[in-house]
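Structure first, sequence second, as always.
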């Protein structure tokens, strides 16, 4: 008799499991057809019979989340976990719901637990990468996305966010910059003159190009720093591939964390760096160089480049106007939308036909041997050399690396590769100019950002 009862109990359990599987399958089919209400009814029918059924609780949690009821979704998923605590899929889903609820720390714990249960769960690994990316932890995010793609090459979320993370950490201009032959030639010429026999510090090494130039030029020592560990690791690989690994000390730190006697054996006699953007002072070059002079360089150390200048001209032309302003479209007047246009934008002016309405002029010059201790402001007039409708100023970069060696990326329709590009500072509204008219400009910076804008003419 006992054996008979056990057999009957097993049959009853098997029948119950089969019925549950049928309801889950039917609910899944309804969901695929968009019949969400019927799917929910089927799941609730199952839960009425088995209130702790983990898969039913999981599906109801997903349904609740899709319906916008995040709190109910989290409650269902927690019940599913209580019923089946070693199911990583439940923790992964709970992490996504907790992100939606704004409980990011608990979400991280849920994703971490999902990965502990299944270390090859590509979706959970991708999700914790997305969490890190939102938190600004780019290194952790990139590492997670790479791991997820290695496990599952079809992991779309990882692939999309990996590209986004790289765009922030290694913007695409790095490749154009390293392929900018005139820029490379100018840096190499300057470094060959100042590096031989000296201790060189390279700040922001990236792929290690300037550090390798210094080593090739015969520097007594080269110390290079890169704050992003996985970029530093790749730079080491590049240096090794060029037979220079034993001649360059690469430190995976921000330059402001370097210490003489720890990271550098001595204060450097030469600083080389390319932490410049198109507006000369972005990328924190002023505080970076000021710190290096105070803590890492010998008095009077050579700095390459020793100055960076912002140069510009007044600009107009119909093709450019279409990038900056709108008046009428498809027969409608929509000029009011111009208020949403950015006043400063990166623009590859080489590729856009435009009118040059003034001589080139200097906007601002940064002397890197004496970085300014505070922001600066300048107001000046620019004379139009030809008539036209003016929309703003196109600005580019000039680097004076050492005496007699310079680099400038003035817009040129015949240019090939330009690592820095240009910036357009858009006026609030177009100005119709005659030759000889004056445009009053203001340039101001706060040691981090530089802006140029037009001012009303003085009476």
């Amino acid at each position: 008799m006992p054996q008979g009862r056990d057999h009957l109990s097993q049959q009853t359990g098997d029948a119950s499991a089969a019925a549950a599987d049928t309801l889950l399958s039917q609910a899944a089919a309804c969901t695929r057809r968009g019949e969400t209400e019927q799917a929910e009814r089927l799941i609730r029918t199952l839960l009425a019979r088995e209130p702790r059924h983990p898969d039913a609780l999981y599906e109801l949690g997903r349904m609740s989340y899709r319906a916008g009821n995040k709190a109910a979704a989290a409650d269902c998923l927690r019940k599913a976990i209580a019923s089946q605590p070693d199911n990583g899929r439940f923790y992964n889903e709970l992490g996504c719901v907790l992100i939606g609820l704004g409980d990011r720390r608990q979400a991280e714990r849920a994703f971490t637990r999902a990965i502990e249960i299944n270390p090859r769960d590509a979706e959970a690994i991708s999700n914790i990468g997305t969490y890190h990316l939102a938190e600004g932890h780019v290194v952790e995010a990139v590492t997670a996305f790479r791991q997820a793609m290695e496990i599952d090459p079809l992991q779309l979320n990882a692939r999309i966010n990996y590209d986004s993370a790289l765009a922030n950490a290694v913007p695409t201009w790095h490749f154009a910059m390293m392929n900018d032959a005139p820029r490379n030639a100018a840096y190499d010429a300057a470094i060959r003159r100042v590096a031989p026999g000296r201790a060189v510090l390279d700040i922001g090494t990236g792929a290690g190009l300037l550090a390798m130039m210094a080593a090739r030029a015969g520097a007594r020592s080269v110390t290079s720093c890169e704050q992003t560990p996985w970029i530093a690791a790749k730079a080491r690989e590049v240096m090794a591939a060029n037979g220079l690994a034993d001649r360059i000390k690469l430190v995976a730190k921000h330059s402001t964390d370097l210490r003489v006697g720890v990271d550098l054996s001595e204060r450097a006699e030469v600083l080389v760096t390319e932490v410049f953007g198109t507006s000369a002072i972005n990328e924190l070059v002023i505080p970076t160089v000021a710190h290096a002079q105070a803590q890492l360089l010998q008095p009077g150390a050579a700095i390459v480049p020793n100055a960076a200048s912002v140069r510009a001209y007044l600009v107009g032309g119909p093709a450019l106007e279409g990038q900056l302003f709108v008046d009428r479209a498809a027969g409608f007047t929509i000029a009011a939308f111009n208020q949403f246009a950015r006043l400063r934008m990166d623009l590859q002016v080489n590729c856009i036909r435009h009118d040059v309405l003034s001589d080139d002029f200097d906007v601002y010059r940064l002397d890197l041997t004496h970085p300014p201790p505070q922001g600066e402001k300048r107001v000046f007039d620019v004379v139009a050399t030809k008539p036209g409708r003016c929309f703003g100023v196109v600005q580019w970069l000039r680097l004076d690396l050492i005496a007699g060696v310079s680099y400038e990326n003035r817009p040129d329709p015949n240019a090939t590769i330009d690592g820095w590009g240009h910036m357009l500072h858009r006026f609030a509204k177009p100005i119709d100019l005659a030759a000889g008219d004056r445009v009053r400009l203001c340039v101001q910076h706060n040691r981090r950002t530089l802006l140029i804008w037009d001012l009303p003419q003085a009476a």
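Margin note: Residues 166 and 172 are 9 Å apart (CA to CA).
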